[in-house]
Structures are given as C-alpha cells and as structure tokens.
Please model this.
Amino acid sequence: MPLTSNDAFSFDGDWSGQLVATAIHTGHDLRDETAGLMVLDEATRLREEDPFTDAIGAQCPARVVVHRSRFEVDLNRDRDGAVYRSPDDCWGLDVWRETPLPADVTERSLETHDGFYAALGERLDAVAERGPFVLYDVHSYNHRRDGADQPDAPGEDNPEVNVGTGSLDRDRWGDVVDTFMTTLGGTQTAGGEIDVRENVRFKGAHLCAWVHDRYPDHGVALALEFKKTYMDEWTGQPDRARIATLAQALGQTVDPVLRALAATTGASAPTTRG
Model:
C-alpha cells in the first residue's frame, strides 16, 4: 500500500534514503467535471501523456506517482500555466468545450497543483535534512508524430533517454550526472546499449527547476525523457518486456549515483534501503 495516497497522487516505497523517482505525467484520470468539459478524444490524450513511466521508475526506492492527467492539471508547469487554457498551451490541441474554463473548475484543478507541491515539499524537506539527494523526474516522449505508418523520427536527434539538466548546477553536480549517464548507457539490452544523451530534446521543466530552487545545496533533479520505444504511441499498447528492461536498468543506476553523490559532498555513501 502507498505510504500516502489520494485520488490525485501517491507516495510509495522507502523514503529513508536519498533518491526519489517521480512519474508526474503518467496519470490518465480526470475529475467528473473536467471530463464533462473536455472535447479532446481519449486516444489523443493518452498519446500526449506519459503512460507506464511509473513502471519504469518502479525499482527506485522512493516513488511519487500522479494519477491525474496532465490535461486536467500539468504538474510540470508553474501554477499560472498548469491548466491549459488554449490550444497554444498544448501543441495546438483543442481540449475544452468552452474557453476559458469556468474559474471555479480551474481553481479546483489548481488545488491539486498546490496540494502536490506542498506534500512533496514536506517529504523532500525531511530527505534534505539528512543531506543531498537525487530526484529522477521520469517522463516519456513521442518519436512517430508523422503518423502510425510513417518512419520514426531520426535517431540522431532522438535519444532513447534524454537527460535534461537545464536548471542544474553542473559545475557542482556534474559527476553525479555523468555517473548516471554512464551507468544507464552502459546497460546491455537485447537491442544493445541504451542511447543516453544530455539536453538533446529536452532540458527539464518546472519540477526540476522547483527542486533546484528550493534545495540549491541539496537537490539534484534529472529530467529523464524515455523515447516511447517501449510502447506503440499510436495504439497505447505496451511492450512489457522492454518496460521491465528499462525499469531494471534505471534501478541499477541508484547505487552508483548515490556513491557519486556522496563522493561529491564528501559524505558517507547513503544507503538505498532502510
């Protein structure tokens, strides 16, 4: 059972260590009132969400899973931009039957944003009291946007895993980043080594920036964008074997990353289990 749970998000796992994985775009749920106002079809909505990213992060010791769809409230944007108000806010998609949304509906969605960051802050404050920590902000991205029957986007511009470090102090935490990338990239899978590159497609967004702003001396947040090679982005069908492989590979980065974190700070290596 989750350590803390409600219908919008849940906290799970062992929070006695210094590494946390989040899946803030994996959710697909909607409140009844937002579902009734939405004209975006479910298939398109699912394609723009990050399905199964909770499963990819499942072997990390402490976990946060958001159950609500980003189309109700996007927790990777600041509060002012967390509810999509027009197609310009979300890739040209028409989301709502009426624009702007009724103010009370918007405010109830923003209550989820407020509640999430308050709850996460309370938990991470306790983690930071013990010392520096790492947060894996796990996402996914589409690479077949031209259509289900069209070629994949070129691999040179679309790594298997994009590590976003745009708001991170790399001068200070660079060894942690490099250890993560080397460990994950060195994983042997049925398709060969995992292609891991930094800031090619994405540099990270609000959650990582919030961590670095709130914990400038303690927080190391990596925005991890997994290319949707682990599923069919047009049908939503998962490749369970590939998801399991990626979950194991990500889980195997935890101890090396925590050792690098300890070396950077001159502390004893934190443990991954209580």
Observations:
- The helical segments are 32-37, 42-48, 53-56, 103-130, 170-185, 206-214, 240-251, 254-265.
- Residues 103-130 form the longest helix (28 residues).
- The beta strands are 4-5, 9-13, 19-23, 62-66, 133-141, 161-164, 188-189, 192-193, 196-198, 219-227.
- Confidence is low (pLDDT under 50) at residues 270-274.
